[in-house]
Amino acid sequence: GSAAEDGGPPAPERVLFPPTFSVSEIKNKQRRHFMFLRWKQQQRKEKLAAKKKRRKEREALGDKAPPKAIPKTIENQRVYDETTVDPNDEEVAFDEATDEFAPYFNRQTVPKILITTSDRPRGRTVRFCEQLSSVIPNSHVYYRRGLALKRIIPQCIARDFTDLIVINEDRKIPNGLVLSHLPDGPTAHFRMSSVRLRKEIKRKGKEPTEHVPEVILNNFTTRLGHSVGRMFASLFPHDPQFIGRQVATFHNQRDYIFFRFHRYIFKSEKKVGIQELGPRFTLKLRSLQKGTFDSKFGEYEWIHKRREMDTNRRKFHL
Q1: Domain named Brix: which ranges (predicted)?
Q2: Could you give the 3-state DSSP secondary structure of residue 13?
Q3: Rounded Cα distance, 213 and 274, in Å
Q4: Radius of gyration of the chain (CA)
Q5: Which domains does the chain have, with CATH numbers?
């Protein structure tokens, strides 16, 4: 007999929705919400049951099991970009040998960075600049008070600075980053979001050391992405000091550049962990300009136009 006939608790009622069931047809709002939750619960149960069934079938077949299907994601369904860089392309190699970053990659120049802010920065932006200077070796922080960028750039060039980083803020929160390579550009403008200082990161490590970190650039595949990646690489000295075990990562995913700063922790000869040091932030490229910063008469190589460029979710530019 059933559990109820044996005196036990009643068995849970199994909801069977008809194939043509539509939650939107239910007029009562509370009832509609309740039925939607039950329908979602049933969908999860069916999905979990199908997953267990597939796993048992694979275990039964053993080595004869077919290969696992690759899940469809926005990244692996990306629309092909004509400007995707081929490492063996002679034209790309020639451009790299003659562009503005060639002296750095040929080890003729050593990076020297000036980090400044928008006019009269607030506390959070000040702390972020200080932490950013501890990540980038040979960087100096200058807090700007009413001095125009066009006047700062000639002074930077005269003092042998190779790059200028400007952190902009809105309502006391850092929201923009301008990176200008000196003396001849280019200049990139990024929107900044998801800024987390060291004290806001869980399970963070100790303060970073003065060792030169390793730099990792992920998924900068197009010509535009290649140029942006070379800009980031030229901020750090060419020879990392692996004794310090520190690594700075610029990870491009769907045209969002995620920055993370970690330290390797070697637990044994085979196991290694990572410990985040901070800070962390996310960048979105807004424009790439030829030459140094010039908001009025600058010539732009690329400008992000939302209504024209964001029509397809699978189209990426970096």
Answers
A1: 111-294
A2: coil
A3: 14
A4: 27
A5: 83-310 (3.40.50.10480)
